[in-house]
Design goal:
With about 190 residues, this protein is mainly beta. It has a domain at about 30-75 and about 110-190: Porin (Beta Barrel). The protein has one helix at about 1-10, and strands spanning about 25-35, 45, 50-60, 65-80, 85-100, 105-125, 130-135, 140-155, 160-170, 180-190. The protein has an eight-stranded antiparallel β-barrel with strand order 1-3-4-5-6-8-9-10. A hairpin with a 2-residue loop joins β6 and β7. The radius of gyration is 18 Å and the shape is elongated. The chain starts with a helix and ends with a strand.
Length: about 190
């Protein structure tokens, strides 16, 4: 997979116009993640605010279709408004491969698969005025999901997008409770 990503990153962009600019870019933004799925519906999980930052490469396959792989560091998880304000902090390297369809010069819809590799996981809570934290190995090392969204390309290589990350793999190993990483992302990017 790494070799495939390197090959895709090395491709040159095609068919550019004033608002559609292909090439290597940097994107960052806010995450609003929670645990989803049938087993999460009875719990007091709330959106946890995190962030994502990373690189992408867009290349056009004509005037209205682009392929966009990327590599991002993303902070996900959830929190609970219980007595100790407990929270799960899950850090991943996300690798999406998106297909973008341009409806106008700037407006586009996109979607595609994403694989995520866990880099760190911990649970925290506030107890007697201090934060108690412990690492856990109960979280799966790999997470598969789908990314769907809406984007808009601005002049000078800037772009905005809003997306939904729909996790398909259970968060926890060997658990009879199946919860999934699910959440929204708001991003600002620049293509060089």
């Amino acid at each position: 997979m790494i070799f495939a990503l390197l090959a895709v990153f090395s491709l040159q962009s095609h068919a550019q116009d004033s608002d559609k600019k292909g090439g290597l870019g940097l994107r960052a933004g806010a995450n609003f993640f929670n645990f989803g799925g049938d087993d999460a519906s009875g719990n007091e999980y709330n959106n946890r605010i995190g962030y994502h930052v990373g690189l992408y490469n867009s290349f056009f396959l004509g005037n209205s279709v682009a392929i966009e792989p990327g590599v991002f560091y993303a902070v996900k998880g959830t929190q609970n408004d219980d007595l100790v304000n407990s929270r799960a902090i899950l850090n991943y390297v996300d690798i999406p491969v998106l297909l973008r369809l341009y409806l106008t010069d700037g407006l586009n819809v996109f979607g595609g698969p994403q694989i995520s590799f866990l880099t760190d996981s911990r649970f925290e809570g506030d107890l007697f005025g201090s934060t108690v934290s412990f690492d856990t190995e109960a979280v799966n090392n790999t997470d598969f999901g789908l990314l769907l969204g809406l984007g808009y390309n601005l002049p000078r290589g800037l772009n905005l997008q809003a997306s939904y990350n729909y996790g398909l793999s259970p968060v926890f190993k060997n658990s009879n409770v199946d919860v999934y990483n699910r959440g929204f992302q708001l991003s600002l990017g620049v293509t060089f």
